[in-house]
Amino acid sequence: MAAINESNVDELYQQATQLHRAGRLQDARGLYQQILEQQPRHARALHMLGTVLMQEEDYAGGEPYIRQSLDIEPKHAPAWSNWCVALRETGKLNEARIAGEKALWLKPDLASAHNNLGRVYEQMGRVDEALKCYRKAVELNPRLVEGYTNLGYLFGVWGNYRHRWMPVGGPWQSTPTTPRLCAISVTY
Q1: What is the pLDDT of residue 3?
Q2: 3-state DSSP helix/strand/coil percent for the chain, to nearest 5?
Q3: CA separation for the pair 72, 82 (Å, rounded)
Q4: CA-based angle 47:17:61, to the nearest 5?
Q5: 35-68, pLDDT tens digit by residue?
Q6: Spatial CB neighbours of 76, under 8 Å, sequence gap ≥ 6
Q7: Most buried by CB count within 10 Å: which residue of 98, 112, 124, 160?
Q8: 93 Cβ partners below 8 Å, 6+ apart?
Q9: pTM (2 d.p.)
Q10: DSSP string, 27-87
């Protein structure tokens, strides 16, 4: 394999993220690993490699890469949010809560971090806090499907049916004859 020089590592990283976004996880993983062979402290490649592993449902494998990226770049809120997910999925709920709170401390408007922290609170049985997180997530990003899914699940599992219909904005804008409501359905 040819060595990656400084001038093309950014280009290679961009290629990897494009493949990642396109769902070509194996190809993206290969490029992230190639970058890390030459630059083991490339924080973003570490973070994204950990994310790919998590998307492949290898949370225990992805967690140390994301942690390592945070050692290098501790102010990267999306990495804290993704580390929150990895920790939650490996059963480390208190650590996950701390990581999620750190993500929001760094970037309070990161909708996915609110959603991820809500999942932690829900697993901890802290339903009111989970509800606040999910609502904030969809307020910040009305197209965050996971936020609505989690709200619906929360209402269904915890029996909070009085919130089954909830006011929202975004893509569900009201018309003069339609109330500004969105039905949250839970299907399993």
Answers
A1: 57
A2: 70, 5, 25
A3: 15
A4: 35
A5: 999 999 999 999 999 999 999 999 999 999 999 9
A6: 43, 44, 47, 69, 70, 106
A7: 112
A8: 87, 120, 123, 124
A9: 0.80
A10: HHHHHHHHHHHH-TT-HHHHHHHHHHHHHTT-HHHHHHHHHHHHHH-TT-HHHHHHHHHHH
Which amino acid is residue 84, in one-letter code? C
The pairing of strands 165-167 and 181-183 is antiparallel
Tokens representing residue 183 in the block? 């039905």
On whether the CB atoms of residues 96 and 120 are closer than 8 A, the answer is: yes
Amino acid at 58: D
Domains of the chain (ranges; CATH) run: 9-74 (1.25.40.10), 94-168 (1.25.40.10)
